[in-house]
Structure formats: C-alpha cells, structure tokens
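Key result, reporting period 2: structure in, sequence out.
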C-alpha cells in the first residue's frame, strides 16, 4: 500500500513538468516574494542611513534605538573576543599539561602522574639538561647543541 503511494507520487512527479506542479509554483512564487521583500528592506536601510547622515537629530527615537543596538553590539563583540582569549588560554593550559607529561629524553607523552618515562626511564617533570654543559635541551635531543655531548640513553 505504501509502495503504491510512493509509485503514484513518482509517476506524478515524472509525468508533470516541474513548472506546472502547483507546489513548485507556490515555492517559486514564495521565494520570489522573499527576495523582493529583502530587497525592499535593503532599500529602506540605505534610505535610513542617508537620512541619519544628512539630517542628524531628525528622528531621535530611531537614533536612540540605533545607539542601544550599537552598545549591545560592542558588548557582544568584546564578549566574543574574551571567549576567544579564554579558549586560547585553555588550549595553552592543556599544552602545558601535556608538556609536563612529555619525556624530556625521548619525547614520549606518558600517563599523568608517572615519575619516569615508560619508554626510556628518564625522569619526567624535569627539563632535559645537557650532562656535559648543563644547557637546557628540548625533548628528543640526541646531541647537545651547545657542546656536542651525547644526551639521553
Ligand atoms: Zn622517554
Ligand atoms: Zn652540552
């Protein structure tokens, strides 16, 4: 029964040209109406801006509403900026958290709370320093860039 209905619908769609379908006609007309209304609104907006520029103070009510919107807009913008900064800050904290768990010897990211690297046994949480000259080195370094000493295991 459902199949018959579906088949009938398909037959209906294929036998009727799209532009003759009342639903498509309705849809086309409605989207044209929407486009035109949008254009109309745009023209009014342009006109409004022109009037505001050319005759400031003529419509104090509208200017008051515009001021209120602009105030809210700048608040919303600074809110968005603040949220963005907070997101970046959170990202940094996360990175620092990961760095703390990263082995200074081989670069393996270990489980939280472990003291020694599960891969190479290097102590975690201490920055890697050169055994030869004491220079600070980045994880995974094999030879010291300052003195050339072999580093790690
Ligand atoms: Zn390691
Ligand atoms: Zn060194």
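The corresponding designed sequence is given below.
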């Amino acid at each position: 029964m459902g199949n018959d209905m579906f088949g009938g619908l398909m037959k209906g769609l294929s036998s009727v040209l799209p532009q003759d379908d009342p639903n498509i006609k309705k849809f086309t007309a409605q989207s044209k109406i929407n486009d035109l209304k949008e254009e109309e609104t745009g023209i009014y907006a342009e006109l409004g801006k022109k009037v505001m520029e050319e005759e400031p103070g003529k419509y104090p009510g509208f200017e008051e509403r515009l001021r209120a919107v602009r105030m809210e807009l700048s608040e919303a913008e600074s809110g968005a900026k603040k949220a963005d900064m907070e997101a970046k800050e959170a990202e940094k904290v996360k990175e620092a958290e990961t760095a703390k768990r990263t082995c200074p010897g081989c670069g393996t990211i270990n489980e939280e709370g472990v003291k020694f690297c599960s891969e190479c046994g290097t102590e975690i949480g201490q920055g890697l320093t050169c055994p030869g000259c004491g220079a600070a080195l980045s994880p995974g370094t094999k030879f010291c860039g300052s003195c050339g000493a072999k580093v790690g295991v």
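The pocket of zinc ion (ligand 1) is lined by residues 103, 105-106, 108, 117, 119-120, 122 (CB under 6 Å). Residues 107 and 139 are 5 Å apart (CA to CA). This case is discussed further under Risks and Mitigation.
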